[in-house]
Amino acid sequence: MDSLYAAQDKIKQDLGLSKVKVIHNQNYQRHGTKSYVYLLNRFGFQPTKPGPYFHVDKVRQHGLLPEELKGALGGTVHTERTLVKRLDQDRDQTGEVTADDQQNDSMYICKVGIGSPAQNLLLDFDTGSADTWVFSTLQDNTTQSGHNVYNPKKSKTFKKLSGKSWKIQYGDGSTASGDCVSDTLEVGGLTIKKQTIECATKMSRQFSQSTGDGLLGLAWGKINTVTDAGEADPQATPVENMIKQEDIPKASELFTSAFYSSRDKNPKSFYTFGFIDKDLVKKSGQDIHWTEVDNSEGFWSISSESCSINGEKIDLSGNTAIADTGTTLALMSDKVVEKIYDHIPGATYDWSNQGYIFPITVKADDLPELKVAVGDAEYVIQKEDLAFALTDDKQNWYGGVQSRGEMPFDILGDTFLKSVYAVWDQGNKRLGLVPKIEETQNLEPPPDSPDSEGGGKEKLHSIDLLAVDAAESTEDP
């Protein structure tokens, strides 16, 4: 590893690479059920635990006839899976899922430059997506309000990609869509030329009311949503282009992530592109443990064939998991989740919250030591992250690990990723981890909780957050 670090130190110096500061979104207010509903939409899985939210198959008819005549006279019939909300536990009446039912904002956002000269935007870095889409001047002025927006006409390196378009749609009907251009993208000191930028022209309220200015996809391009004249035409992600265009040497075809809890007094989460933070690795006292990644479905999928609860090992032979920075919770099988909460005093499954909760009176010492396998090594999920969010009555915690429902794999989101330093080695199709546990476990309500100091403040728009970051940033190169 020392030779690798030495090579990357030189690369870092020669190319002027730097950490990408993660900005904790001051508008983000964590809510367990809303985060779970967002995941029901994001992954489209049917829950196996009872609660208000579930998927139904609804008939959609397309044609030129009025809606009231389509059923009788024709039109192409399609079935679409739609997320609905049961209005009463004892009745079958359902209603629509709205923007207020889910957490559609991002906890972490990062600065990215697009165009020449660079136009700075705040994007959500997401290893579970492969689209790089942004707010743009091509969309309606009302949906641009408060956002940093990309203006292609102000860039000398912009080129329109005729015929190419994109669309993201979730089961609740929320959508974002638009046209594609090619332009330069700058992140962490790296300059990536001819990157496909998906410019929003339309978006629903769920997207327009989020704090960030779009998304930077860090999965594999095969799940990119771009089409050309209606036919699938997936575009390369920034990291894939970084590799393809040889913007970075072979030994550095990677990025890394280090997330810290918002409960900490001075959280300094970051990403790097093209180099590993060797000081953080050495601080762990361990070498990086590498695990092969299966990217056949476009995700960072790894084996996760066991977990341990207070030292009791649970065999999960054949189990896999997706490592996903775009997910706040960790989702695991009912078999595992039930055992986790069996070890927490007073924990129970709650229908209205559609998740496991436990009393706020529980102390850190009362929580179990949970370890989750990635490859043939197990990693502790720090105890404070088992207490994700206060419930509405402020008497319980919504647990950070919840049911994956009918999904055949786990999702290891921020609840897991905050406990490790992750090296996403895309060039070698492997994921490297070292443990990163806070010395003191803090179960105080985090700053992004409405009842905490720092919660419930007046909303800051992304324009404001970018200005604050420019004024206060002290990030070392």
From TrEMBL:
<protein>
    <submittedName>
        <fullName>Aspartic endopeptidase</fullName>
    </submittedName>
</protein>
